[in-house]
Amino acid sequence: MDGSSAGVLEAKVVILGRTGVGKTSIAIRYIQKTFSPNGTSTIGASFMTKKLIVDQCRVKLQLWDTAGQERFRAMASLYYRGAQAAILVYDITSSESFNDIHLWVEELKANTTKDLLIYIVGNKVDRASERVVSLASVKDYVQRALNPVCNYPVAVYEVSAKEDDGDIEDLFLQLAQTLVNQKYEQHWKQSCPSLLSEYEESITRSGCCSGS
Asked: What parts of the sequence cross the membrane (predicted)?
């Protein structure tokens, strides 16, 4: 993660998912606060940035919106390599798009570290009457298959890029907040290793955890 001090954070966030689920629409809704019903499919990947301040930390999110077509899938590793967070998007009206999430998860697990933040996002809640993927089933999948193998809990969101009511803003704000918390935690550990060591030694000397 880039940034020369604890008050600066630059993070790469990759957005993955099947074509047509609304990855680009989510990114544009967040960055530009707009929605276009006639958006074209992404070729390769597109790149956007967002600057914000979280807990007095200047954050710059680099959003990599990847193509969902099968012919571009082999290129995806070029874009998610070195990412600090991944947003996996599915369409709540398409079980096939959610099945694709499993494939992306396996690929990320094989090619990234356990510190990668993963967000599972169901789009198109404005079409709730056509829902085929329940929120409960997604949360069950995350609890059963992802949280045991990830260093950080996997977040689950449902949003509508078309009729946004603030959920997309909340999604990225929570992501940025978690990244900042990670950075401060790492910065503190690196800055105060002697204090950690002294604390651990004092616990050992006190015998507070012994069986006597």
From this structure: none
Give 162-169 contacts, CB < 8 A, sequence gap 24+: 162/25, 162/35, 162/37, 162/124, 162/126, 163/126, 164/29, 164/35, 168/26, 168/29, 168/30, 169/30
Beta-sheet pairing, 57-66 with 85-91: unpaired
- Where would I find the H helices in the chain? 23-32, 76-80, 95-111, 135-141, 167-191, 193-206
Is the Cβ–Cβ distance between 6 and 55 less than 8 Å?
no
Q: What is the secondary structure of 45-73 as a DSSP string? A: EEEEEEEEEETTEEEEEEEEEE--SGGGG
105-157 pLDDT, tens digit each = 988 888 888 889 999 999 999 999 999 999 999 999 999 989 998 888 999 99
Sequence ranges of the domains in the chain: 8-206
CA 21 from centre of chain: 16
Q: Which of 26, 36, 193 is nearest to 124 (CA)?
A: 26
Exposed (0-12), middle (13-18) or buried (19+): which is 109, by Cβ within 10 Å?
middle
In this structure, the chain runs to a length of 212
